[in-house]
Amino acid sequence: MNIKAALLALLAYVIFSTHDVVVKYVSAEVSAFQIVFFSSLLSFPLLTMMMVRDSTPGTLRPQHPGWMALRSLSMSVVPASAFYAFSVLPLAQTYALLFATPLLITLLSIPILGEKVGLPRMAAVLLGFVGVLVVLRPGQTTLGPGHAAALLAAFGNAFQSVILRKLSHVERRVVLMLFPMLTTVVVMGLTLPFVYVPLTGPELGGLAIIAAFGFCATLLLVTAYSFGEAAVVAPMQYSQIIWATIFGALLFDESVDLLTLVGAALIIASGVFIVLREARGGRSSNTPVLQTRSRAVTTGGLNVSFFLKRNSSDDRSE
């Protein structure tokens, strides 16, 4: 079953990578803020279905409004930052920076979750940040807003993921989806007067594809996590660097230099090590990276774990 799960995850990340190619095309004419606004609006029917079917007792009032507000604001920033990075940076470079998310989750889990991070995982985190520096090459390359946006997306996703680990056992799932989605629509809506451009037919079609591909890929990941172990499925996300290299070369005439590949390899190696280390147990009690079943740049608050059936092993998972 793990082989089947891995194959389904690989297919999901092919679709996610195609999703990001469409984002790159559309963002050439449309602001990332406008793309996120309309993509989030298209996700409301799904949330409505979840609210109707959810039988969990309770209200829509958050139990921890402060943490919920922080998570909602973080989630409103992540897709816009990532989409902007995709629009101005090569695909492979953007992915390499977004792959820093597990490293940041590991660090943020210390103050927020009380996680104890041993020397091996901390060494892996340091190695990963060396990889980030290799990709960025400060002093040798001109760093711009795109690099900052990619790192902001990675940090925002890590921050919201750790908060979600903290809240998932006390908040209703519809509440965990509703407030980030509403916040995203409001925040992105406030930017529309400054960035709005009339949408053409192809651009509307692109937005529909972005929403549909994100939804379909998420469902494939749901199935993958249902069939296989998280330690098998989670590392499949790094296959996106392969598709980024292929799509970048074929569609956008992008070339990937050796140092970017070396930096990406260091980041990926550290991320895989952290996942496998958490899967083995040991000093980790929360396994925040292993149980973070999400994707950094999907709009609309879609998250794999919201679709998974809650059972005794999932009560503590995202």
Which secondary structure elements does this structure contain, and how are they paired or packed?
Blueprint: H1 2-26, H2 32-42, H3 44-53, H4 65-88, H5 91-98, H6 101-113, H7 119-136, H8 145-167, H9 173-195, H10 201-227, H11 230-233, H12 240-252, H13 258-279, H14 304-307
Helix pairs in contact: 1-4, 1-10, 1-12, 2-4, 2-9, 2-10, 3-9, 4-8, 4-9, 5-8, 5-12, 5-13, 6-7, 6-8, 7-13
Summarize the structure.
The chain has one domain. The protein has 14 helices and no strands. The C terminus is likely disordered.
Please supply descriptive tags for the structure shown above.
mainly alpha; 14 helices; globular; disordered C terminus
Structural commentary:
By secondary structure, the chain is an all-alpha fold. The protein has one domain. The chain has 14 helices and no strands. α1 packs across α4 and α3 (44-53) runs antiparallel to α9 (173-195). The chain is globular and about 50 Å long.
